[in-house]
UniProtKB/TrEMBL annotation:
PROSITE patterns: THIOREDOXIN_2. Gene3D superfamilies: Glutaredoxin. Residues 2-159 form the Thioredoxin domain. GO terms for molecular function: antioxidant activity; oxidoreductase activity. This is Thioredoxin domain-containing protein. GO terms for cellular component: cytosol; mitochondrion. GO terms for biological process: cell redox homeostasis. InterPro entries: AhpC/TSA (IPR000866), Peroxiredoxin_AhpC-typ (IPR024706), Thioredoxin-like_sf (IPR036249), Thioredoxin_domain (IPR013766). Keywords: Oxidoreductase. The active site is at C44 (cysteine sulfenic acid (-soh) intermediate).
Amino acid sequence: MLKLGEFFPNFLANTTIGPIQLYDWMEKSWCMLLSYHSDFDAVCTSELASLVKLHDQFRKRNVKLMAISCDSLSSHTRWISDILECSLSKDKYLPFPIVADENCDLLLEELNLLTPNLETTHVTYLIDPTKRIRLSTTYPPNVGRKFREMLKVIDALQDISIVPPA
């Protein structure tokens, strides 16, 4: 697993909004990257539905959201309908991309977010504008993440990060 303070690896991936090179897509923003083993799991769907509802709060903090799952773009497209329905959103689109990692190459090898036997965990990385990891969390797949708490952590990290070095 990647460690705090390390540079998060840049990657190129197909997503629900087209191909993305992470660093280019982030620009000068923060990024919260959430990993999932597969689509349509009830916990995963409810988590992403929560993020739809809180998207404006993350945007106010200059945090871009991105999910990654070991399923195809066509699966993600069907999943997005469930996510939006669960979120009760009137929007017809998901306000953040989902990376398609069908062979789990990105999750398993480049980002080291899965074990070799594909045991699932839900990992969250918060990456700052310099592309360094500022937060990492790991949850068992049956436990949902609390994104209001993540917002508090982001507020604390961003307050620290704006203090000029001595």
